[in-house]
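Friendly challenge for the regulars: who can give me the structure tokens for this chain first? No prize, just bragging rights.
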Amino acid sequence: MWSTAREIAEGDVVIVWLTREAVHPLTITAGKEFNGRFGAYKHSDLIGVPYGSKVACRNGKGFIHVLRPTPELWTLALPHRTQILYLADIAFVTAWLGIRPGSHVIEAGTGSGSFAHSVARTIGSRGRLYTFEFHQSRVAKAREEFMQHGMSDYVILQHRNVCKDGFDLQDEIDCVFLDLPAPWDAIPHVKRAVRKDRIVRICCFSPCIEQVLRTVSALNEHGYTDITMYETLLRPHEVAQLPAPVPIHAIRNKLQIAEVQKEDRRLKQIAASKAKRDGAAGASPSHSSVEQSGSKRKRGAPNDDTVDDGGDGGSKDVKRVKTGDVNAGDTDHLHECVESFPSGTDLKGKGKQSPASSPPPLTVTQPIKEVRGHTSYLTFACLLPSIFPTPDAGRPFSPEMEAIPEPAQPSPESPGPQPIDEDNDQPPPGHLDGLQATPTTVTPPAQ
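First reply, four minutes later:
Bragging rights claimed.
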């Protein structure tokens, strides 16, 4: 269908992948430029680049992926002229209709060509896809795309109203797909186009349940069987890896380490405050005498309960700490807490767990929040073969005659009923068990 070369050449159709919601088709033409939300890209820069490459913008602020077209990517990137079929419906219809390489398929309602591209890949060059479209402008655009994508040899596009004029085919089609506003008007024309020597499957694509009701009535009226209706909904999931939850004992150790660090800082602040107070008392006794005399202290003046920040001016705010002597019980309690931790515990809290001890990450899935909802209803049915080998060419034959066997007629040469041989346990030919071949004589009772 599309180019099978490894590298992009001029005239090739490529798929430009910007984001999951922004996918664009692009025909490589020298001299042109593609402008997107992630920068501008010259077509000449893409020539010679392998398919699937990540191409950076010239200014280095963005990039795009250039992909080889597939029917799935074309469904996401094609220009919408009508409502299209998406992957879930296309895959289900293809499987249920039994489309395979070499099949001859009818599609009524070409539209934007989404289903036609998928069927063309499935049937291959040995098959045939007869697709019909009523609107002339859509026919012209679809024919141009089919020729550009290399599908015109086995995809036959016709401008025709199949609901009135039929398909102009006879005894050739293996399966039928009707994407029409009124498929019940095209159902009577299907029998002439399909093969008569095999089971033919049909699918009708209808967005409203009222259309389904009329379609089912038409299928029943024209002798179709196994009529079923499905609705396909796609629910994709996103897979992600999350770090494993921290064990309880690790959280407990972390809290204990934080408490030990806090207590260690408090004891250091107390010791620093006491040392500074003792040094200040020995250096300026007059200042101590003033404080002892009970004079008032000015607002903002330094006092014994603060720890200097080490600045020269002393104008910065200082932190008030709890003063008091460092008791031996405080340090003993600190050492007991440290000794209670497992060996190798990082008291600074900056250590990293070894790869062997760290638990593996958890793999979780969740459905994507924005999922495509209802598209249409798919009504399927089967048309049984109408040609069977007839046992008697002089009279018509129907499937009901094959199920009901005819009674056996005795030939003139066959012998009649024979008497039972008492010496032989086996009954004679043609004798039925439980029946006697000779009449029974009834003797009247004696007077």
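DSSP finds 13 helices and 17 strands in the chain. The two ends are 106 Å apart (CA to CA). Your move, everyone else.
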